Amino acid sequence: xxDGILVFAELKDGKLAPVAKQSLTAAGKLAQAKxxxxxxxxIGKNIEAAAGDSxxxxxxxxxxCDAAELEHFVDxxxxxxxxxxxxxxxxxxIIGGASFVGKELFPxxxxxxxxxxxxxxxAIDWEGEEIVATRPxxxxxxxxxxxxxxxxxxxxxxxxxxxxxxxxxxxxxxKIEKIAYDSVRHGARAKVIEKIRESGxxxxxxxxxxxxxxxxxxxxxxxxxxxxxxAEVLGGAVGASRATVDAGWIPYAHQVGQTGKTVNPKLYVAxxxxxxxxxxxxxxxxxxxxxxNRDPEAxxxxxxxxxxxxxxxxxxxxxxxxxxxx
Length: 326
Ligand code: FAD
Description:
Elements: E1 5-8, E2 11-12, E3 15-16, H1 18-34, E4 38-44, H2 48-56, E5 61-66, H3 75-89, E6 93-97, H4 100-113, E7 117-121, E8 123-127, E9 130-137, E10 142-146, E11 154-158, E12 175-178, H5 183-186, E13 210-214, H6 224-234, E14 237-240, H7 242-246, E15 267-271, H8 277-283, E16 288-293, H9 300-303, E17 306-309, H10 312-325
Parallel strand pairs: 1-4, 1-6, 4-5, 5-12, 6-11, 7-11, 13-14, 13-15, 15-16, 16-17
Antiparallel strand pairs: 2-3, 8-9, 9-10
Helix pairs in contact: 3-4, 6-10
The structure holds flavin-adenine dinucleotide (FAD).
């Protein structure tokens, strides 16, 4: 497949992560416009089925590297494997998610392949034979058009939920090839000894369609129960501002913003969050933003679709009761 599109199909618990299916959609659209083929790369442990799923999601071929050493993401090993497959397939473009994994993997790949990288993009298209990617900058205040270049393949990471997920077909027709893991060629200088799963959050923040976030306006960590309750009735995930994370009210995994997660849900409910720019950059692309804040001048209202000026301790219990009834 020289001159095709390579997709780094990120896995979660051995299955295609939502951002992998979104990357396959983005790649599929670009490939179709130029008559190119999409090839997927899956890396992990016990992942042959995931390679098959990437074919069902539109890839014409899939490579997978399956080894106990690859169960957890290690940037050095993963980059070596993707670079090896890129050398073999000579793609024009490599696409993956702008997830925690993608944010570590793609800059390393860019250096290894002597490539330009457009990171965290929300749209991509062709302009002649080059790609032009659209990405927010300066906390979403500006939208940039970026055309990565360099001697190597163009690299792009896509923002979660910026593209729809490819729907797997019942069956798929494509070539699947296993790449044998070789500790000399693919080994890394660091290894993951243990992975500790955050408890209590059943919905991943970056994949959630609905997020209810709490800020310092909650006054006390115990009051996060209001946020959890509202998230539960709405079937969403719990987010938080950095002020609450720094205060030890809630683990870092919930933090939304510049130094936390970038989220793109259909609905974001900000409760007692002032709307500092560092928080806004992580959530302002949400389709609908509801802000609850007692200060009518709070900056969060500048990005809110619906603003409720009032005391969250009065509003949230009423809202939860009404939604439970509904
Ligand atoms: P505050 O700013 O204290 O706001 C609390 C809000 O609650 C106020 O608007 C107040 O009116 C309202 N309120 C109070 N009581 C009530 C009530 N009873 N009912 C309703 N409303 C009420 N922040 C992030 O969130 N994410 C990041 O990733 C992040 N990264 C950062 C990176 C850097 C380099 C820096 C310098 C800062 C970063 N910050 C980040 C911190 C950011 O600047 C703010 O300090 C933080 O977002 C404030 O959190 P907050 O809105 O919860 O608290």
